[in-house]
Amino acid sequence: MSYFNSRELAAISLSAALWAVFNWLVSPIFWQLTHLPILCDMIGVTVLIVTLWWTRKRGAGATMGIIATLLNFILRPGAFHFLGFTVACIFFDVTSSLIGYRQILDKGLTGSISLIVLSVVSTTIAGFIIGNFFMNPGFLASAFGGVLVFAAIHGGGGLIGGVLGVVIVRGLESRMVIPRAVRLH
Question: What is the overall mean pLDDT for the chain?
Fold first, then answer.
């Protein structure tokens, strides 16, 4: 018997594919227009929260991030900066597992705030990694004021994505898209 059932694998794979395709098609256009590194964070955290809510299993977020990274490398072979998001997904997955899925998914306002804070911290980590290892230091200094500001802007994208993810999850719950008996293991 496998760890993830077919519904969970579908949720993980669809989320990863959605993130990878948006990162391939839309994120480069958004970057060229604004030079703001927030769209990928927004999309990634939103689908990460939905995946976590759907599966409630340790490793689902990390698996989704790894699959998205592999798809990203297929679609954009030179986009090594995405490894920062891979680390952010692993951090998000491990931290949410340590906090407890019921604490962050079923506790109403406190759970929602926890998810949003976790989203901001995760994407700030991604921004810090991307800024330090994959960006031109001269560009960061002239355009953003350094790596810390760049990481904070990523955190802003995580804030927006965290709010979107929580709104989507709460909407799905209120519509009873997946009855509790099916979701809880």
Answer: 88
